[in-house]
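Q: Hi! First time doing this. I have a protein sequence and I read that you can turn it into a structure. Is that right? Here it is:
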Amino acid sequence: MSELKGLHNEKWVNVEDNERGLFIWNIGLMVINSDSAFNGAYFKAEMTFSDTYPYSPPTFKFTRPIYHPNIYPDGKLCISILHPPGEDEQSGESAAERWSPLQGVESVLRSVLLLLDDPEINSPANVDASVMYRKDREQYNKKAQEAVEASKKDIPEGFVVPTTLNTPPPMKFTDDDDFWNESEGEDDFGASESSGDDMEEDDGEEESGEDNEEEK
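A: Yes, that's right. Below is the predicted 3D structure, encoded as structure tokens:
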């Protein structure tokens, strides 16, 4: 619940309600990056959690096929962060690359976004996509845009996909003559009228003190 609430504040992901319970999430992962081949995508995915989470990693699967070196035809990913904890001598992955209880949903989703734009072509899940990525990037980008257009069919009705992650600037301050007119009578330091009286009294005491000195 804590992780779910935190993601509701993010603009690049949309977690929809799932009637099957808290341990299955329907996710809309948005690519908001003008430099990305997948810019503008709303990739719908399903993430599931076991009763041993966070000691075991969640699973992640795109619901639509995406032509990408590290995505299987069924939508599952080949990504280190979703592999069980500990080192794997066979794959050469270190424990730091794989899942650990210190990871979380946001770490997984951000890793997926990074993988979309920077695939691991040395251990591909889709060999053809890996070859095309290396040898014919123009054709690869064309297939990426096809996936983007297909993904837009999954945008929930009424939901607006942001085009930038930047926060809008604050509203421009408008000069108000009445505001400044009301402020003219106030002391620059915000002193009250009573504080002004105190200052006058202090001046009077100083003057009387000077007169006494002259008399002496």
